Amino acid sequence: MSSKSAATSESLLDELQTTLAHGTVARRVETLRRVTDLFINGAVDFSDEQIGLFDDVFQCLMEHIEISAKALLANRLAPLGSAPPLTVRALAFDDLIEVAAPVLSQSERLDDETLIETARNKSQAHLMAISTRRVLSGAVTDVLVLRGNDEVIHSTVNNPGAEFSERGFTRLVDRAEGDDNLATCLGMRPTIPRHLYLKLIAKASATVRERLEAADPQRAAEVPTAVREATRRARAAPSAISRETAIAHALVKSLYEDGRLDEHQLAAFAEEGKFDEANAAIAALANVPVSIAENMMIETRAEGVMILAKVSGMSWFTVKAIINMRDDLSGMEPADLQACKATYERLRPSTAQQVLRFHRMQQNASPAA
Q1: Which residue segment(s) compose the domain that 47 sits in?
Q2: Into how many domains does the chain fold?
Q3: Does residue 6 lie in a domain region?
Q4: Looking at the domain assignment, is residue 136 inside a domain?
Q5: What pTM was computed for the model?
Q6: For each of the chain's 369 residues, which pLDDT tens digit applies?
Q7: At CB < 8 A and 24+ separation, what contacts does 7-12 make?
Q8: Which of 40, 63, 91 is the last residue of a domain?
Q9: Contacts of 104 (CB under 8 A, 6+ apart)
Q10: CA angle 161-162-163, nearest 5°?
Q11: What CA–CA distance (Å, rounded) separates 117 from 350?
Q12: Has residue 2 been placed in a domain?
């Protein structure tokens, strides 16, 4: 710090002691303004220890000052990457949105833990401020999606810097039913898992499907495919798939060609919630195209899974893992596992083969357009 800054700091320190001991609210506000000026003018050069001292000073001065002064402090500190962290945290937790919003929406000093705690306990206005941040992790958006109202949800999904977990995407797909704008924005996000994209499209209105076709012609082939899947009339249209899905399919193909793909590996994929890998694995083991397996895997009922598993000679343990994965990822009501087990044990391999032949014929007979 320069000698001039040091002298200013010393005079401010004397003023601060007097202000805290005897000062009026107006005197505190003026001192807060001067301390803020001093910090902003030298923030780049301050050490962590000096920033810590400012943290203490700000927190003392913030007690018993008017809302407008706190809001002004929040606006001035929010853009600073070196802002005093405890002060920023205190501002973020303020119940008054005029005070909290600037730091919640901008400050890089707030970590995910603080954002999550705020999102869990504060108002929808606080959630709205968080939803506009430049970057949002999946852990933070999970809470926004769970607690947020429609305005917060739309703001979060429209934020290009927001990431979503698979659970978050699942909740959003359910929430998008009947909301064309949300469904469209969700369908345009490149990271939405393929099976959830298909579920979204299957539920979507004609307006949403038209918007998605116009926005991404390469992916457009999936739209009629998903709609037919929803009515169990699958068609064989070449579908544009995401990079993540392509990588998953390539991994499974490599395992299969090396002789390392078996029932245990499929069960492991299912237990880890890896839909694309599990889908490609069961297709390879049942000796059917991935598209047919996918159609059968995303059916509302679990019969398709059981048909593929029976053809492959799999144990109930693996079938149960796949059914549980479907339920977890889709957000559907959990299947009656006892009833499914009884059905699977009664199902004959010859019957499963006949049903699978029917699925093949159905796909081959689907019109090309």
Answers
A1: 1-91
A2: 2
A3: yes
A4: no
A5: 0.61
A6: 444 444 444 455 556 666 665 567 787 788 888 888 888 887 667 888 888 888 888 888 887 788 898 999 999 999 998 899 999 999 999 999 999 999 999 999 999 999 999 999 999 999 999 999 999 999 999 999 999 999 999 999 999 999 999 899 999 998 998 899 999 999 889 888 888 888 888 777 778 877 877 777 666 555 555 554 443 433 333 344 667 788 888 899 999 988 899 999 999 999 988 888 999 999 999 998 888 888 788 776 788 899 999 999 999 999 999 998 887 776 566 778 999 999 999 988 888 888 888 777 766 654 443
A7: 8/38, 9/38, 12/38
A8: 91
A9: 92, 110, 115, 118, 126, 129, 130, 133
A10: 120
A11: 55
A12: yes
Is 337 inside a domain boundary? yes
Structure tokens at 104: 């919640």
Give the single-character DSSP code of 45.
Answer: G
Q: Among 343, 324, 342, which residue's Cα sits nearest to residue 334?
A: 324
How is residue 180 written in tokens?
């064309």
Last residue of one domain, picked from the residues 91, 109, 125 = 91
Two tokens, residue 339: 């009833």
Find tokens 């600073």 and name the residue. 80
The residue written with tokens 């769970």 in the block is 146
